[in-house]
Write a structure and sequence with these properties.
The protein is mainly beta and 202 residues long. The chain is 13% helix and 44% strand. A hairpin with a 4-residue loop joins strand 9 and strand 10. The radius of gyration is 17 Å and the shape is globular.
């Protein structure tokens, strides 16, 4: 049975909040993170969760927008063997309504081989990637929530030093909630406390 302790984390100076397990450390305490991003990592499991605010991409349709971002991510990270495992339909979220314009949410899950940091292709790990795209059309913003879960760690990867090479141990085996659940909760608990963050009053 997983015994996970969660906290509501203040993001972007408290303008946004989301519930994330305590085992995930705020990356900005260790290194600089871009202003439009919040990043959390569990170094013991090499799992990470990233929340970023991007300008709305009007050319990307709502249906399958998370899949578009997933594939864009794969291209950006020079991933190999990228496959989309599943994608959701479009869900409207009335709780994220701005001037009567509800947010639109889609999710996608993929699997790809990517390298850590500046490591080359020979050190690629197989990773499951969860992406949620929350489209805040009222403030022309695409919110991306991305979770990374290692499936297989390459012996040449720097991750092998901390979590060991080979198949990653299932989260439940280590007494933790699986990344799919961590991701689902981070998305479902996502809340905007101050719309001024987007340069717009209520």
């Amino acid at each position: 049975m997983a015994q996970e302790v969660y906290s509501q984390r203040a993001l972007f100076g408290g303008a946004i909040s989301s519930i994330i397990p305590n085992r995930f450390q705020d990356v900005s305490n260790v290194r600089q993170v871009p202003d439009h991003q919040e990043a959390f990592v569990d170094p013991a499991r090499d799992e990470s969760l990233i929340i970023e605010l991007l300008d709305l991409k009007p050319e990307v349709g709502d249906n399958g927008s998370a899949t578009w971002f997933l594939q864009d991510l794969a291209t950006e990270q020079e991933a190999e063997g990228s496959v989309v495992v599943e994608q959701s339909g479009v869900v409207e979220v009335p709780g994220l309504c701005y001037r009567n314009i509800p947010a639109v949410v889609t999710t996608a899950v993929g699997q790809m081989a990517i390298s850590k940091g500046r490591q080359g292709r020979e050190a690629q790990n197989t990773v499951r990637v969860y992406v949620a795209n929350l489209r805040l059309k009222g403030v022309t913003t695409d919110v991306l929530i991305t979770a990374y879960e290692p499936i297989h760690i390459n012996p040449l990867s720097e991750s092998a030093n901390t979590v060991g090479a080979g198949l990653a141990a299932p989260a439940l085996q280590s007494g933790h909630v699986p990344m799919a659940e961590v991701f689902r909760l981070a998305v479902s608990s996502f809340k905007i406390n101050d719309w001024n963050l987007f340069g717009s009053g209520p």
